[in-house]
Amino acid sequence: MHVKLSVNGQAHALDVEPRTTLLDTLRDTLKLTGAHAGCEHGVCGACTVLVDGVAVRSCLMFAPQAEGSTITTVEGVTPGPGELSPIQDAFCETHGMQCGYCTPAMVLVAHALLADNPAPTREEIVEAISGNICRCTGYAQIVEAIALAAERLRGSNRPVGA
Ligand code: FES
Ligand code: FES
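^ thats the input. predicted complex w/ FE2/S2 (inorganic) cluster below
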């Protein structure tokens, strides 16, 4: 099937088999390996990307279902090569990652949350990441990272990702 997608600001026209997941399309065809394959059946959240601004498990979506969509992967949130977004920076500063396997998805969930809610409560942050499994951190530093990023983004009066 022919599928047109915008990924991280770049237009792509791809030929895929109907059974191809969005996750495999991003990783194997577009070489955007920040979307991680964990369980591949919708449980862990490691494959999360933003589809039209909404956090979506890309292992559960077929590429043709994303026809015409605007997709953001973790590679698309950095201001420039070698630079970190304010959210990524906060994850580093608070030790919000250890092995890093869950981290791209956590960062994207945080981007979606803060785009909608610039001043989330701790409970709202916990709720936002509740679908994403982290085997390493115990989650406390991840919540701290998102709260720190929210505070900084409010202070700088910048939209998420800027
Ligand atoms: S790899 Fe998609 S939810 Fe686990
Ligand atoms: S940092 Fe290792 S799974 Fe989250």
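The helical segments are 22-29, 86-93, 103-116, 122-128, 140-156.
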